[in-house]
Amino acid sequence: MVRGWARATQLTLSLLAFAAACRAPLDPPPPHGAERFIAPPIYQQWWSMTSECSGASGSLGSIDWFVVPGVARFEFEGQQVAGYWSRAGNRIVMAERAMLNGTVVRHEMLHALQRTGAHERRAFLGRCAGVVICITSCLLEGGRPPVPRAALARLRPEEMALDVIVEPAQPGARAWDGHFRLTVTVRNPRRDSVVVVLPPSGDVGAPPGFSLELSASDLGIWSGDRAWDSAVTVFGPGETHRAVFDFRLSRKFDGFRAVPPGKYEVLGRFGGAPTSRKQFLLEE
């Protein structure tokens, strides 16, 4: 076990271990040392999530999976990437240390479902925002978000309906092969569109967006990101935005998202505003 708080921020991990390199018109040779692998059972769950948010359908079994052993990222077309999809063979290549990072895997799944390497705003920063990761080149390619009307009501994060959802309801070794997810949701309680005004970050960067705190008796994890895309602050009537945080059961904490069994308490935030605290038991 690790005492104290382990700050495993999505921002840091994403910038170090993720770059979008998803548009090879022909399958390039797999990276040196890459090996084929069979998609683990949790991939079907992630595939269904990505299909649902995108509205696209396809077969997970059609994907040709490769892994580059022992690395968090590898070079592809002059970039350091955690994974890429190529169209010709419907192939996804993942770095080993990213192959159980749900938002990264689902990013490549979204390319495969849409059969394009483009980062369309509507898919990556709209329908599947918070389900897939979209920063750096993905964010740039998505383009600037629409400017909300000046007449829209401006609300503080505390005025929104916030919640954190534990799925499955009884996580542990008997469900989803030990994987579980904690989803922070923010819903507009009004019948009109609104813009949420997030507090400043205190530096030149974007304001705080979604974050999550997971704690046990001798373990604490904080994970979160900034609101890099301002569209996350614009809500239609009754609309909900979300951020998914994937975890899995492990004998010991791996410094990121593999956690040991025990009693946990979870708290989500959006722009610093908290959800209510929830407790759950992670069983072996």
Any descriptors?
4-stranded mixed β-sheet, 6-stranded mixed β-sheet, 284 residues, 17% helix, Immunoglobulin-like, disordered N terminus
Strand content: 25-35%
What is the CA-atom radius of gyration, in angstroms? 19 Å
Number of strands: 19
Q: What is the share of helical residues?
A: 10-25%
Instruction: Spell out the helices and strands N to C.
Output: EHEHEEEEEHHHEEEEEEEEEEEE
How would the global form be characterised?
A: globular
Task: Please summarize the sheet with the most strands.
Answer: 6 strands, mixed
How far is the first residue's CA from the last residue's CA? 16 Å
Total discrete domains: 2
The overall pLDDT average reads 91
How many distinct helices?
Answer: 5
- Low-pLDDT runs of 5+ residues are 1-20
Structural class: alpha+beta
Describe this structure in words.
The chain is an alpha+beta fold and 284 residues long. It folds into two domains: 8-142, no CATH class; 153-282, Immunoglobulin-like, CATH 2.60.40.10. Helices cover 17% and strands 33% of the residues. It has five helices and 19 strands. The chain has helices spanning 10-17, 42-54, 102-114, 121-127, 136-142, and strands at residues 5-7, 35-36, 64-68, 74-76, 79-81, 83-86, 91-95, 153-155, 161-167, 179-187, 194-196, 208-216, 219-226, 234-235, 240-249, 258-259, 262-270, 273-274, 278-282. Strands 1, 12, 13, 17, 18 and 19 form a six-stranded mixed sheet that branches. Strands 2-3-7-6 form a four-stranded mixed sheet, with helices on one face. β17 (262-270) and β18 (273-274) form a beta hairpin. α2 crosses α3 and α4 (121-127) crosses α5. The longest helix is centred in the first third of the chain and has 13 residues, at 42-54. The radius of gyration is 19 Å and the shape is globular. 39% of the residues are buried. The model is unreliable at 1-20 (pLDDT under 50).
